[in-house]
Amino acid sequence: MKLKSKPDNEKLPVPPQTDSVAASEISLYRNVLKIKKEHDLEELGISFWDAQTTIQWSFNADQYFHAASTMKLAVLLGVFREIDRGELALDSPVHVRNRFTSIVNQEPFMLDLGRDADPDVYGHLGKTLTVKELAYWMITKSSNLATNLLVDVIGIETIQFALDELDIDGVRVLRGVEDQAAFAAGLNNEVTANGLLKMLRVIADGKAFSEEACKEMLEIMLEQQYRSGIPAGLPKAARVAHKTGNISTVHHDAGIVFLEGRKPYVLVILTQFGPDKARGTAVADVSRDIYNTLAGLTYE
Amino acid sequence: MSDQVPTDHSIKVVDAFDLDDELRSLLKPGEMMRDAQGRRHRLPRYFYEIPDRETAVSIRLSQHFGLNEFVLTDLKEAPRLQQFPRYVPCAVRVLAFYLEQFRRDVGASVHIAVNGAYRSPSHKLSQTATPHMWATAADVYRIGTTILRGKESIEKYNGIAEDLSDDIHVLPYGHVTGLNADDHVHIDLGYITVIPREISEDRMEVPQENRPRFAFEERRRRERRNGALPDEPEK
Predict the structure, then answer these.
(1) Any idea what the CATH number is for the domain that residue A223 is in?
(2) What pLDDT does B200 receive?
(3) B10 inside 8 A of chain A by CB
């Protein structure tokens, strides 16, 4: 079952009297518009797919956003592609070093370690961490250093190969993190809500290279330590395998929600706001609305 | 200099021509390799054989430097060369000696980076010949508690290293690209080859052959055939 939202500028529809999927969709649509207005969001993109009801719903889901740290999911996918092919092992040691090469003119650059909240990684400068440890810190604490090290190990082109092989469009990964020369040249990683949804679905379905690889990826994503996005709109008992993404003007979250007694649902929420605005609770609010919608749904 | 080495272990020396085909193809003993300036250098042939991790950790090459610090590599090194027994050119002792002097002069512990000491010619960073392939260069990323990432600290320690001996060569800050992204002090002694004293060099240029070339090799082969202990006296 697939439902698509209507354009923003239409009049708000009146919900039908009877409880139905259509009524829920209309109600959800109204709430999403309300959240967008309340939080003064410039852009909002949502996509979800529910394995229990097979409902897929989207709102502005093919618009590209700056990926921020959600691109790290694609890096994770690339890493497990190489592991599945035997090119890499989870316990392979990687030299922890803060020196990278820009995709623009091959200029070297270093990360500002003061901005990276991951002493677990930069505390190992000059030493090694395993591929698995780097993947863990890249996802769970969004370590930029771990991300760039893994991008160096597998190569940026491998990430695109992984996305192509799994038929995932809507995710463009051009570079690692904090490549200021590339940023200045307008070369950024971009995602759509539908693109991230596809990626999470292949992982949730155990179809990203191997079931074992998917299990490993899910285990890492379930350890996510930043929980102000999708999890903040859910009951405490919910388990979420997810990845957040934040820069000055975007706040995203993309994850798989596991609730007791039902199949999981996959949810991607992308938000963009003005430079003078602080990050609000829009992602959590959308997450809460979708949870409430699914919880109250009478599925025929 | 060997008198200063506080070790309870002896290290076995091997002629890399005597190793199996895969190891020879990775270590490239005696082969010529060009450096970045196009000069040709002959790769080392005699290596210390490190049987296991415990030995690598327990053997001290100098008072403050363990053998394990000189063979730390990551996945850029050929997978076979990451497995024990591991091999490091005999000149590593000379490097350890100089690093010990460097440590004394800086008055703090000196930390060698991963991939920062011996790198085989098959290592992914070994595009052209560098003293790292002779085990006569070290990249130091931390001195005491100072992680080297600024021009000031790198130039300071470069100066101390250069003052230590005319044998020591350092690379200037930003040596890779000339830009501000350096993160280590590079100390090297040039292309030093150490020939263990029991070796006769009259067959130095002879390629790998089936017959034994040196008495100690013949003994070693016999030991392998008979499963005898390496220390069995020659008969």
Answers:
(1) 3.40.710.10
(2) 74
(3) no
